[in-house]
């Protein structure tokens, strides 16, 4: 999404959102838009969740804000406990911030401080993947592999190595087994660690299911386990960025639970506040926390609004909806229906190259030629045309121009609310198919 600066320029271009009802957003003209992507994978409970709204009203009546330099709060403590209770093994501590980029910045700084505390000051290098997005602040932007976003700020970015993504549709060679492909691309991490010198490498960061830059691309089975082994062999921290794919989006509270992998740190945001409040979190292992606790005793980092009571209250209510109201199995069931509907409607489409994803996190990749997988000419800006056409038919989806082997390609990301009904899944897929066809002839 472009960084809109509010004011006259935005008013001319965008409709005014004035209301929300379940899976729909409503504009000032009374037009309804089915929110097929939760904005950018944010609104996982839709737009009028009674329990979250009630929790926010109650928190506001009690306490809006207390600075974490002076107080902790029930809301923040309860949230940290619940996030840890459900987290992969070894994850024991939570650092609450206001969004995804802040969580990633905190992860990079925590990694650095950890190695100072344990007497390995040479470790400072970060390895990430080419097809990735980790946020727009300078540290997070440096970690991300999106060339277009990085280009004009490159002199300001810390040096990061970027290895290949695990992107089966384009990366797996003919005749290569899925297992061998996973091993080959994971092997790039080991080669890069050795090239840089293991004693200088601090962390590897990756999205378990790649979101904005690729359109819901999960790693092949076994890939993340190999990555974990490689990190362990070289004493490198594994940071999994679940800002988009976490908080139930894939049908598991943390996406990496499905891969059977425990990272050293996890970043989350988006679905954690579900759009009701801006909130993100960095979770870390007990080992990292202990090293800092025994060393300097505090993490040298912080933001004014971290652990905000209103944000924590919203997140507690969101987590309770996801975990206590049976939404995880629902995401898995509705996700399968969405996948089946996409395949039945678009599976044979001459310009749909791939349909993929997990849970209610799905991607559709558009190609000029299905046989050669050649993407459309970027000058055509197909993704932007799909977004416009979709809004015209009353659908919010998240089309993006990703980078494919240095060239721009087009995909549509779908991340509807977990409460989406069967009928709404039908409507989403119908409207998407119409929008794609209109964009192709526009
Ligand atoms: N990491 C990932 C995987 C993301 O998808 C995003 C947002 N699209 C971010 C980090 C940055 O989050 P935010 O926009 O909340 O700063």
Automatic annotation (TrEMBL):
UniProt KW keywords: Aminotransferase, Pyridoxal phosphate, Transferase
Xref: PANTHER family: AMINOTRANSFERASE, AMINOTRANSFERASE CLASS-III
Cofactor: pyridoxal 5'-phosphate
Name recorded for this polypeptide: Adenosylmethionine-8-amino-7-oxononanoate aminotransferase
Upper lineage: Bacteria, Pseudomonadati, Pseudomonadota, Alphaproteobacteria, Rhodobacterales
Sequence similarity: Belongs to the class-III pyridoxal-phosphate-dependent aminotransferase family.
Source organism per UniProt: Albidovulum inexpectatum
Pfam families the record matches: Aminotran_3
InterPro entries found in the cross-reference section: Aminotrans_3 (IPR005814), Aminotrans_3_PPA_site (IPR049704), PyrdxlP-dep_Trfase (IPR015424), PyrdxlP-dep_Trfase_major (IPR015421), PyrdxlP-dep_Trfase_small (IPR015422)
Hydrolase among keywords: no
One GO cellular component, as annotated: cytosol
CDD domains for the chain: OAT_like
GO MF: pyridoxal phosphate binding; transaminase activity
